[in-house]
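Final paragraph of the annual report: two paired records, presented back to back.
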Amino acid sequence: MSCHPIVDAPAAEHPEALAYHHRWLLVDDQCQQLERSKAPDLVKLSIDVAYDCLVLKAPGMLRLDIVLDVIEDDDSVRFQAYSGGQAIDVVDEGDLVAAWFSNLLGQACRLVKVHPEATPPD
């Protein structure tokens, strides 16, 4: 069964990925979800789960691994993002991840993880 750990990104087929369906989303500089229609190069992304990491690959880019289950206790990286008008409590995955996705998509964006106590977007 496939699932989408990153909203609007290609599916991951690994059985462990199902537990992480819609746990991440890409946001623009206004903290709005970056939808696939505004990020057509997102189709180049390959997503897998291995060794407790979300494994991201894209042509011409280095592999990026993001640890799946990190308890974030630094409130400076926690904020509100918006998906379809819904406010979601999220945690920023950091500057390196933002640079990786900005390079892939050709526009400034950030990958954020839905806070464990928040409801993921539909």
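The closing record of the year follows.
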Amino acid sequence: MGTHEKTVGASKAIKAIFLVCGLGVSSWAPMVPFAKDRLQLNDANLGVLLLMLGAGAISMMPIGGVLANRYGSRVVMLCAVLVIALMLPLLLIINGPILMGAALFVFGAAVGTLDVAMNAHGVQVQNRYGKPIMSSLHGLFSVGGLLGSLGLGFLMKLGLEPIVAAISIAVLLIIIVFWKYSALFDRLTEKAAIQEFSLTQEPGTAKSAFWLTGSVLFLGAMCFAVFLSEGAMLDWSAVFLRENRGIEEELAGIGYAAFSVAMATMRLLGDKLVARLDSRKVVVSGSLLAAAGLFLAVCTPWLITALLGFVLLGLGAANIVPVFISAGGRLKDVSAAVAIPVITTIGYIGQLAGPAILGFIAHHYSLPIALGFTGILLIAVAVAFSVKKSI
């Protein structure tokens, strides 16, 4: 098999891994009510417990990059998926809150490790492939997220017990990762891809293991702002629609659904868009469109315009993070194995801690003002990236 055929095979395989990650992570969401009832938690205690998942993800992201660099990202991805598959059924049966917190930390750590390894692998496949694939990779993650959030409930509707449904999803994850494992780049192929890409760079630009550079921190800050907008939709869109637009509680999730479908659709189409336009135009126009969507949602009094605003936010924000991660893999002075974990970690801090910041603003002012603040951050991303001369 020639190099091009191997690269095409690897691109299909890494797409499957992104789908697996989205499916595994989102399968936890339908389990939350079961955990709350089983452990007899109030909302405050549940919130503290849920933080353990984010803490595990953030703590392992930098380590995941080191492991991927040392052992090869496909080995790390395989181990991470196996841990995720093992933990999913356990999350439905653990009875003690302390053990549940520990299990969520391990689950989150596996998710964070997988996220870093699959993004690093995707960048190397993209560099060798010679055309953008990162948007479609993140699009398949979003598709996996939609399938996972619905899949557990669908299996239970078919008559399966929750634990059997969770085991079924876990088995599916294991089958996919073993099926695609051999098609992923091994460690030597990854190293060769990195060396091939380095030959295209200017002479004398040796890759460094030092991450505290202006370019890495800049991309991380940009990811922080965009991930914050995604976290705002996940945690606050239903509250906003219920309390500020009068929608029934049972239908309040429609806002996040509209946002998610728009984002997944745009990411699946995003590679052609990035190839046709340069990345700077994608980031600037996308940020401005996302900000306009947020302002439309909070500044008009109608439900239909709020939903339209969430759709515009999903369309605009969809391809920004894939562009940033691709840029992190092409930095002249920092290794991708170092830069990508740092950039994604800073971004996920925005997704996890950002909604808490918005809650503080909403408590002292109002939720529409808090969401409007997110729109201002997106405008700042557009301005900063438009004036940045180079990454």
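The CA atoms of residues 146 and 320 lie 20 Å apart. This concludes the annual technical report; the extension proposal builds directly on these records.
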